[in-house]
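Journal club prep — side note

Before the paper discussion, L.F. wants everyone to see what a predicted structure for a comparable chain looks like in token form. Sequence:
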Amino acid sequence: MIGLNKIFLAAGLMTLVTPAPAQLPSDSLPTYLRDQRVLIGQYRYVERADGMKIDVHLNADHTALYQIRSGADDADFIKAEGVWTYDAGTVHIHNRPGPVRLEQAAPPSRDPASGLTVDVVNADGTKAEGLGVTWPGANALYAMTGGSYSWSRAELGDARRFRVLRSGDRKVLQEVPLTADGPNSFRFTYHPSDVEPFDIPAIALDERGDRLEVEVGTSYARLERVRDANSD
């Protein structure tokens, strides 16, 4: 675990606000909990050199708070409110992204050489990222690298609709019907959230859930349970 200074956290912020695999950058092993309710509570880490504070709240209703404060006035440096889940020994703190839209950019057309073609651009014309396409029976979410993807008629099978999802949280942005001889080439414009979905992983280090190791940018911090509920 390295010291947490403002330069490090500024770089780490870029990691936090982009979707990333939930993997802690340490060699600690998680303690697998029989009852995840032992995690309910508040955890804190303080970097004494500069007064940096990291707080994590895991509430009984599965809402969560991840907060980093700095300076003499405890100003917010990062504050993410959302929900927490527990799966296979890892706590996942998910943010609540703002509004997002996917709009039809042009009338759909028919491409006889393709089973399905989907093309998505951002409002500024650049290729959209972080999206995927699926349909009933696909058994997969196809990532749209470069904002576009095509499937053959054999791959599409007899699907009668497809969905465009945001990969970070599987939010359905569009569900579009398909017919045997109807349009199969679609263009959309993507208006992403101000902050896209992200997942901050953490692991319990003991069976009582008194110590929590939490990802902080490209490093990690070990937080202790706060016993005084009124502690700031």
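L.F.'s comment for the group: The two ends are 24 Å apart (CA to CA). Keep this in mind when we get to the figures.
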